[in-house]
Amino acid sequence: xxxxxxxxxxxxxxxxxxxxxxxxxxxxxxxxxxxxxxxxxxxxxxxxxxxxxxxxxxxxxxxxxxxxxxxxxxxxxxxxxxxxxxxxxxxxxxxxxxxxxxxxxxxxxxxxxxxxxxxxxxxxxxxxxxxxxxxxxxxxxxxxxxxxxxxxxxxxxxxxxxxxxxxxxxxxxxxxxxxxxxxxxxxxxxxxxxxxxxxxxxxxxxxxxxxxxxxxxxxxxxxxxxxxxxxxxxxxxxxxxxxxxxxxxxxxxxxxxxxxxxxxxxxxxxxxxxxxxxxxxxxxxxxxxxxxxxxxxxxxxxxxxxxxxx
Length: 310
Description:
By secondary structure, the protein is an alpha/beta fold. The protein has one domain. It has 16 helices and five strands. It has a five-stranded mixed β-sheet. The radius of gyration is 21 Å and the shape is globular.
């Protein structure tokens, strides 16, 4: 099951579990791995990254975005732009949506260990993305020289109004901190722009899926009917959410009823269907207690299911 079905299932749990409360935007995005949204944006529209740091969008053509791991030390650097020329800098991207006093200690440890292990001789830059300045609580005393140099750029999403660019990528990033009252209208505006400006069908679908994912984070009570109406049923049928979840429901269902009804039956149905969702919920960061509560299962059943996973 892909990432969008998991997000939709998380939304389903939120709607049905009285003890699963979502408070602030920051908590929502942090709990459900906000960085995955940014990495998908950077993969689909790498020029967005360079726009965020006031560099020419065309610079993205000289880079490949990837994730790297310093295996000997078990460090993972999730967002790295690797250049195709020795005179260009390596860019390390870090997305931080929760207060973390060790953010800079961890970040520079990962960067310097990577530089020590790689054969690349390029210089480097680091970009740390926060929702706002209040989340930037990392201890800085030992890293003042680095933080005040050109090595490090800190981006605060709620201050992106200073960026004049109105590219689809930047507008998608802004949507993450858009007020809930205007998020739907903004999402429709971005989707319409994508349909007009992006000719590549696959890339257009990816943007629509990104917008859908962000809205699920921000507006967990938004129904599938509202989502389909917002983006158009034909677009909904092209998303991984439709193809992977609705199609699974159709294949496993015993009748030829509507796909929507089959999805509800799949999610709320038999015990084996619930057990199949446990690994995905664990991957989202939910505890055994939270999963048991959300699925209406005994904690011991959930624990045994996790232990039986290969």
